[in-house]
Recover the amino acids of this structure.
């Protein structure tokens, strides 16, 4: 029997959805053929999203590549997208501190961009992260921050997710009165909006809240109404949970045939879709019900399945831990490589600035040197103009990174600032240019047109004789 149970578990683990594979293959083809950097960033982001459910480590590395490319190209939106995917991947592999780190980085970007809907979305993601980590007090703080922004700006669609998440956080923390208030609000809004996915999830959550509070009749009604919504939207995770909720209500009412029926349906959906934790819950439930019915064979069979699933979860956890270490090291190595690239780029920029700084006085000295030779006045004027232009352009070059950073790379702000600087520099430029050219021209003239002393003396002598 145990070998049969393990076969079921192995079949469940090895099952892959064809549609997901097709989507991944399609996105990989797009990425391979895309030449433009922005297009590649978008393709990497989309492929990372497609990998999140099945291969979070691959999703993480793709998002990291997208982030570095977006940062290099100053594609701020792409940076935000990539950071979001990196945070989601770290959440999936159980590294909550790193996930929070990337959410905070994304939050800083969105605060600079000043997009309140994006800020609210990041707050919701942080709330869900804390909820997954079972830090419910912190989860509520961020969820309410998101809710405040959403209500202030009237983001109706986001409001559905906010109310749903706050209700679920309160339910997980057993604050059932608040959970009921928020989930009811979510259900009412989603019904009016015609959002069947949220409606089904809200009804399932209401069933969980009513079940915890002991109101089995309302729990039963909520679960039954939720089922068609969840099935139609393809939300089989909540569908399996809803089925198990109904099974528990029937068990409580000693209607064991119905309890077993819904329990088996929950187990079949969970195992068929690789929801191992929910499949484990269903197998534990069925084993207990069969024991109550003194059906030892069936009870033993589901107990064996339960053990097999638990072993599989433990094995997966161990494999996941090893993969996490490997992924962490890959991420670290990429960070080191990127840091080296940035340091090399910075060194090149500093060297170029140094060379330009050295070239300017050399060019100026060259202008002084040619002014001492017999050359045309226009050449002296031209060299003087070039010297001054180089000097002032060098100042602009030095100021540009500081101004760009303070203006968050806004072209409008940058052009206003540089026009203001030009308005100050230009008059000084002309005055210095005029003074320098006059000095160089005068120096050149004196060098090549100064009268000879002997000739002067001869003239003076002639004048005396006459």
């Amino acid at each position: 029997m145990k070998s049969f149970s393990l076969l079921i578990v192995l079949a469940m683990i090895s099952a892959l959805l064809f549609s997901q594979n097709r989507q991944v293959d399609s996105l990989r083809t797009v990425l391979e053929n895309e030449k433009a950097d922005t297009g590649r960033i978008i393709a990497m982001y989309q492929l990372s999203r497609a990998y999140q459910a099945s291969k979070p480590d691959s999703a993480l590395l793709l998002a990291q590549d997208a982030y570095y490319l977006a940062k290099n190209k100053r594609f701020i939106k792409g940076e935000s997208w990539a950071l979001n995917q990196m945070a989601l991947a770290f959440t999936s592999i159980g590294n909550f501190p790193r996930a929070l780190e990337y959410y905070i980085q994304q939050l800083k970007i969105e605060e600079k961009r000043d997009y309140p809907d994006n800020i609210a979305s990041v707050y919701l993601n942080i709330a869900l992260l804390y909820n997954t980590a079972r830090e419910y007090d912190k989860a509520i703080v961020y969820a309410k921050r998101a809710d405040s922004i959403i209500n202030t700006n009237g983001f109706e669609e986001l409001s559905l997710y906010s109310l749903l998440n706050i209700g679920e956080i309160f339910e997980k923390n057993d604050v059932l009165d608040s959970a009921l208030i928020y989930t009811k609000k979510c259900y009412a809004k989603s019904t009016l909006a015609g959002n069947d996915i949220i409606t089904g999830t809200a009804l399932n959550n209401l069933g969980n809240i009513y079940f915890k509070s002991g109101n089995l009749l309302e729990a039963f009604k909520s679960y039954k109404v939720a089922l068609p919504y969840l099935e139609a939207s393809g939300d089989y995770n909540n569908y399996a949970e809803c089925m198990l909720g109904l099974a528990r209500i029937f068990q409580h009412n000693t209607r064991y045939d119905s309890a077993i029926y819904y329990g088996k349906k929950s187990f079949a959906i969970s195992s068929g879709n690789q929801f191992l934790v929910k499949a484990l819950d269903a197998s534990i439930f069925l084993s207990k019900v069969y024991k109550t019915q003194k059906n030892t064979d069936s009870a033993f069979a589901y107990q064996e399945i339960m053990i097999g699933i638990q072993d599989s979860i433990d094995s997966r956890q161990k494999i996941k831990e090893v993969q996490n270490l490997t992924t962490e090291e890959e991420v670290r190595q990429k960070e080191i490589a990127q840091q080296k690239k940035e340091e090399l780029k910075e060194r090149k920029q500093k060297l170029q600035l140094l060379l330009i700084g050295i070239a300017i006085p050399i060019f100026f000295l060259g202008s002084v040197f040619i002014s001492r030779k017999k050359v045309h006045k226009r050449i002296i004027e031209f060299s003087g103009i070039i010297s001054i232009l180089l000097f002032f352009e060098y100042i602009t070059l030095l100021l540009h990174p500081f101004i760009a950073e303070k203006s968050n790379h806004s072209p409008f702000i940058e052009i206003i600032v540089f026009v203001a600087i030009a308005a100050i520099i230009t008059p000084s430029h002309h005055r210095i240019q005029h003074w320098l050219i006059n000095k160089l021209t005068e120096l050149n003239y004196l060098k090549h047109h100064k009268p000879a002393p002997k000739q002067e003396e001869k003239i003076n002598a002639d004048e005396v004789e006459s």
